[in-house]
Amino acid sequence: MTGPTDDTRAARTAPPGPPRRATIRLLKQLFTDRLALMGDNAEAYGDVVRIAIGPKAMYLVNHPDLAKHVLADNAANYHKGIGLQEARRALGDGLLTSDGDTWKKQRRTIQPVFQPKRISRQAGIVASEVDGLIRRLAAHDGPVEILHEMTGLTLGVLGKTLLDAELGGYETLGHSFEAVQDQAMFEAVTLSMVPQWVPLKKQLHFRTAREDLRRIADELVDQRLANPVENGEDVLSRLIASGSEDGASRERMRDELITLLLAGHETTASTLGWAFHLIDEHPEVAERLYAEAVEVLGDRLPEYEDLRRLTFTVAVVEEVMRLYPPVWLLPRIAQADDEIGGYHVPAGSDVVVVPYTLHRHPGFWTDPERFDPGRFTAAERPPRYAYLPFGAGPRFCIGNSLGVMEAVFVLAMAARDLELRKVPDKVVEPEAMLSLRVRGGLPMTVHRRERTRRSEAA
């Protein structure tokens, strides 16, 4: 009888990772600097890393081929994981947190709303909303909280393009989603060991926020039921039609709406915040954006076809999402034993693909920390799974086309008409929550370009 082969032995071997004595340092990073936790260990131990923290072990995957295995080739073995599991208390079984047949049914219901032809027909609405934003910004004399403005814009666009509804009256949405994210990450980093009944301030805020989100979702459904749209193509109409066909509960519609409201505005708003920060740091990029916007758009609003002509603006958006991917972590839980990169991963393990570290992998990106939109205008593109701003595989982000169009329109119109500059001494740092946010907001001063002032005078 022969012994195990070298390949068999390798598959049974756990990946390298930090020693157990490093638990305190790892816990500190998990609480205070999750990006460093992932980046430091990927750099130190390679493309598959086992990070043991207390009773849990997390497997960090940091190579395009291995990301493809987890997210696409063997996606059925990997369900949603850390962070998203905890967010389920507020988001319910929406598209972001559900799995299996429930997820497939939800995806089939909502998918038609995001078809390219329908999204292209929404370009006029997006451009009009962005035009209103630019006018509001131009009227500011002092500093403006740019992330607040971007959140208002993305919620407005989401409401009109996907829900055929006005969201401007729901001013508590942003604060409620922030409380949900805070609680979800708190439960994730404490390994859910703090009982939910403990009256911590964070947990009290979460309960209030959850009720607020449920109230808003119910009001949106009630409004549509009272004012149905014949043959409506929006998400609300499709959810209600689906519910009448298969008996879906009000709770399921509520879960889908809350999930859409979070995912549909938070990621694009975060991307735009990082874009304005990076453009301010690189005046040469600002000037190229301005020149392209003037050449392509002149004084008119952008149209869907302009996305093919605003090539540098698109490249800026892509490079922003490389450095600061709005979804910085793609967490999964292995349902059965698996082998990743020659290493054994047991069932029940937390497996994470981290776009933030993958987008900085020195094997696939030259000078990876440098902001260089030219990477995305060059003839040679990076490998498909080296760049995952919208995830990959069956769970590829359903709203990617709308998000990119919105971001491109904002940057082109802002570059043409305005100059945005960070207030002095503002320290810009990332905050890794469910999305990758700018910690503490982004105050900026607004300066109208000379051509804008001439146009207003005329």
For the record, the CATH architecture stands as Orthogonal Bundle
**Main β-sheet: number of strands, strand sense, barrel status?**
5 strands, mixed
Work out the strand percent.
Answer: 5-15%
**Poorly predicted runs of 5 or more residues:** 1-10
Total strands: 12
Give the CA-based shape: globular
| CATH homologous superfamily title | Cytochrome P450
Labels describing this entry:
53% helix, 458 residues, 3-stranded antiparallel β-sheet, 5-stranded mixed β-sheet, 18 helices, single chain, 11% strand, Cytochrome p450, alpha+beta
Give a written overview of the molecule.
This protein has 458 residues and is of the alpha+beta class. Helices cover 53% and strands 11% of the residues. It has 18 helices and twelve strands. Strands 1-2-8-5-3 form a five-stranded mixed beta sheet, with helices on both faces. It has a three-stranded antiparallel beta sheet with strand order 4-12-9. Helix 12 packs antiparallel against helix 13, helix 13 packs parallel to helix 17 and helix 14 crosses helix 17. The longest helix has 32 residues. The protein is globular and about 65 Å long. The relative contact order is 0.16. The N terminus is likely disordered.
Describe the structure concisely for a colleague.
This protein is of the alpha+beta class and 458 residues long. It has helices spanning 6-12, 23-32, 34-45, 64-73, 84-91, 100-110, 116-121, 123-138, 146-163, 173-189, 201-226, 235-246, 250-281, 283-297, 311-323, 355-358, 400-417, 450-457, and strands at 48-53, 56-61, 78-80, 144-145, 330-334, 338-340, 343-345, 350-353, 418-422, 430-432, 436-438, 443-448.
